[in-house]
Predict the 3D structure of the following.
Amino acid sequence: MAIGQYGNVSCKFKLEAFSMKHTFESAQPLTFYADYDPESNSLYYGSGKLFMHLESKERGSEAVLIAYGKKSKAYSSEVQKRFRLDDDMERIYKGIAKDSHVTEAIARYYGMRLTINDPWETTLCFIISQFNNVKRIRLIVRNIVERFGNVVYDNGKLAIKSFPTSEELKGATDSELRALGTGFRSKYITSAAAFCTDNINLYKLSANNYEKLKSRLMEIDGVGEKVADCIALMGYGNLSAFPTDVWIKRTMEKLYFDGKEVKPRDIHEFAKDYWGKYAGYAQQYLFHNARTYRDEKQKVERSKKAVRQQA
């Protein structure tokens, strides 16, 4: 899938602790619609009218992140903000590595960054994520981008489209969306698209006040506590958010509450007290570690089952 160099080098960033692979695979918005080529460690996606082609050259703890395209502030700003390149990862790791659970996750996924994505993209992706798995979320989101997005790059082999805006989606019919695999989520998608176009400006919400931001986000149809936390964390960059789905809830109960069942709010309070201002980063590492371990365990079990059936 690699397309070679697209245009000139727009900008370069020399980084410590950056992994394109781990960041892409960690169930963030780019996981659901971007194209990743593991051989060249390159990522392709549309951002507004921009075609983003990024390549990461990594060696040990050091990386050089290259963006190809026009030399403009738009490219540089997109990369720097999206991948949180100003984050001091050494300080963040020191802040969250308070026990073996997080330390193990950091060792396995060293360099994984949280990303700050377009608020509407993040909202749509996590509305679709409810009662879903990563593979199916990606299928649905890419179907929507393919159906409603606009072409920003096409070389005959690889076509990249922009993520459709809320205005472009608010006129979609239930049957159109269901044909893309959305199922019961179709009504939430059209309702959210209309609300975010006509009743709330996602781009003017302040990222700084976590409680107020979360409250405003929950005015959107289909956005509950967990989805609002995902949007606050990955759409606005508020690290106070600690998204708690069924998997992170079970993980937290097992690792930090002696297996006792607790409420998501209790988990959030614990995270705030324990990891402080970097709680969102701790969540992402614990979540990705638990999810990947679960997937690997299921893969092993399927393999064992297949062997038994053949015996």
The CA atoms of residues 217 and 228 lie 6 Å apart. The longest strand covers residues 50-59. The mean pLDDT is 92. The domain at 119-232 is CATH 1.10.340.30 (Endonuclease III; domain 1).
